[in-house]
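Input record (one chain):
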Amino acid sequence: MRVVVIGAGILGSSVAYHLAQKGIEVEIIDEAHQGKATLAGAGIVCPWATKATDPQWYALYAAGAASYAGLIDGLIERGEDDLGYRRVGALIVAETAEELDAADQRIQSRIGNAPEAGYVRRVTAQEAKRLFPPLREDLAGIYIPGGARVNGRLLAAAMTRAAVAMGAVLRHDHVTLDLQDGRPRCLDSSGRTITADEIIVTAGAWASQILRPIGLEHPVAPQRGQIIHIQLPGVETKSWPVLLPMTSHYLLAFDDSRVVVGATREDNTGFDYRVTAGGQAEVLNAGLRFAPGLASGTIIETRIGFRPAGESIKPILGRVPGIEGLIVGNALGASGLSIGPYAGRLLAQLCAGETPDTTIEPYAPAA
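The corresponding structure, as predicted from the sequence alone:
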């Protein structure tokens, strides 16, 4: 079997890695868009705190977190050590006792079947500030030891390198699809046919452009996210937990005295790469509202990423009805760095004729 994977973000790189592990011939084609969500996103692996209640989606979200340990161990065994992943814990904070109590109840109801979450406990405002020093002094919290952070660009690159080491081919090109005798055909930028028994489209926010020429109106659009990176010179930040206020924003630290604050969720922007005044203000105000100690930091960059946003929280995963040999993986939205590696494994199993570890039937593409 020969498989072409279009798009090497966190999902596509995982598909290629897991297919290559099965000995399947894989060609990965990526256009290297600078606005890929994987490149810009600051990944947080902590499903237990989400406010989302859809049970099927939450099961997939939680399975994504549980799969990380095996994924990381497998990559390390293959010599990959620059993975951008660290289990630093997560600190959940809220501005009212009622909101924190509700979060605690929600988390406790979920961790019974999730040993990877660790021993979850309430922490005082004093301890919360010790864990995340820029934090406000009046915010008590919930500490989840199993929370982790991930640098999507490093992890995707590691999975792609591992796939290539197992025989996969990587190339950067612009490809298009057409139909020939009812089957999809992949054409490179010079119009040459790229032979494939199966084509898997994991092109994120750009997938609609790829699928439209074969008559598919793919219900995914770019959602712009602006993410600010703040430098704290001389401050040791690598052990700080991910900070999750009960809002749509987040804060997390990396190893180089850097704190990331994100993110906007801007619909109907198209592929507009601009850093806007409103976006900057939203993210900075959200960050300083909970962590005023960042006020003296230096803004070193603002990254723009385009999340592949679907019509609901549910991803799109599976074979396209009526078109033999075409699989789509998309619409992971803001959960991409948590679900993406696991969803890639499921799509690889589907492509190989195996039964996926978690059913993906609820996420099948529309006809």
